[in-house]
Amino acid sequence: MNIYFKPMLWPSILSFIIFIILLSFGTWQIKRLFWKEALIERYLTQSQSNPITDASELLEKQINEFKSVQLPGKFLHEYEIYITGKTYEGNAGFHVVTPFRLSNQKTILINRGWVSEGYRDPDKRKFSLYNNQINLKGIVRYPQKKGYFVPENDGENGFWFTIKPLEIFKFLKIDSSEIVKDYYIDALKEGVKMTLPIGVSGKPKLRNQHLSYAITWYGLALSLLFVYFSYHVSSGRLGIKKKV
Q1: SS3 at position 10
Q2: Strand 107-116 vs strand 184-187: parallel, antiparallel, or unpaired?
Q3: What was the pLDDT predicted at 204?
Q4: Domain boundaries in the chain?
Q5: What is the pLDDT of residue 2?
Q6: Separation CA 191–CA 12 (nearest Å)
């Protein structure tokens, strides 16, 4: 018995190109899966390690992202800004970002967390405006990078989309010699009682659907092969011929 196969030219070329594209998408998702798992592991390792307690360490450029901190200082509430387009459990709102004067007199930005539209105005949440020195608990973050479809920051009109410390400090007219520009801090939510602004939980909330995406792309690639060969069988171009 011999297997005979007479592939059609253009359907074969087109199917081959699409098959390679589908495989590449699936492989890319596998790479993203490994990257995301490493990121989650790094988040857990750094956020649960011994916190930085010396403010001078924030002037270094070797601090790992997500490193935990516990630093004394004072909020400069008169300079707070609001990051647009943030949600919490499906509710639209803002992230409150406030400069924080450290014990070494340097100033770093703190993403204090989420507030709803109704509590954006600080006069409506005076309970959240701490005037005394506090001991801030949080995690170190690197300056955000603007996504392709994310607008540019427009501080003059009050529209902020990404946390870029140097850009924000420049807009606020805070002396560049007094700032920490290489990092900002996500404030941690403390206790079980819900208070505004709502800080990060300290546990990673990173969607990791890359394995299911990879399976989908690979599944489409296999489906394409099935359709391709089924078509050739039905058209008499692929089959088994008995030896005479």
Answers
A1: helix
A2: parallel
A3: 64
A4: 2-40+208-241, 54-187
A5: 80
A6: 62
